Amino acid sequence: MTGDFNIRDNTWNSLFSHYLIYSNTLRDIADSFNICLFKSTNQVPTRYVNNPNNLNLVIDLIFLHPNSEEFDNHTIYSDWRMSSDHAPIMVNIFIFEEHIQTKKQSIKNSEEERNFITEIIESIKQMNTDHIKRNEDLEQIVQDFTYKMNDIWFKHSKIVNITRYLKLW
Asked: Would you list the DSSP string of 7-27?
């Protein structure tokens, strides 16, 4: 949650001498979303006034989830404000490359599905479980069955493109 909250408070602006009740409400709202105030990497005002008798303020705030270390790096750029009375705030968000799968192995029709299930059932019937005496024996049978199931799956399935319209009607 970020924005110009127009709340002056000594909690986020050490130059302001007062603590305002409105900041409690803001913190309660933030807390209800499980977010908290994050301080900028440089502690400078976010709003600049034209009157030299008034203080520049920190009223633009950023609230984030407490475990968001990757976002805890915002910087206030007071020298970028040009004619604005607010300084821009920049946050670096690191985007990591992600593989998006576009194909998958699938059984497309009911005939292939029936054949797949029939072969799996036949494989289970042919399992010899008479010699299971130790955990290792059971693990070997499970591993053999897993390999067999995998072979049967690839025998009856085909590679298809993943789209919104995956099923044929």
From this structure: ---TTT-TT-----HHHHHHH
Residue-wise pLDDT for 151-162, tens only, equals 999 999 998 887
Residues paired with residue 161 on neighbouring β-strands, in sequence order? 103
* Distance of alpha carbon 53 from the chain centroid: 46
CB–CB of 7/26 below 8 Å? Answer: yes
The reported pTM is 0.50
What pLDDT, on a 0 to 100 scale, did the predictor assign at position 169?
45
Tokens of 74: 């915002």
Q: CB 47: neighbour CB atoms within 10 A?
A: 19
Pairing of strands 36-38, 60-64: antiparallel
Domain boundaries, the chain: 2-90, 103-161
Residues 6+ apart with CB under 8 A from 99: none
DSSP string, 67-115: T-GGG---EE-GGG-TT-SB--EE------------EEEE--SHHHHHH
Give the chain's radius of gyration (CA, Å). Answer: 31
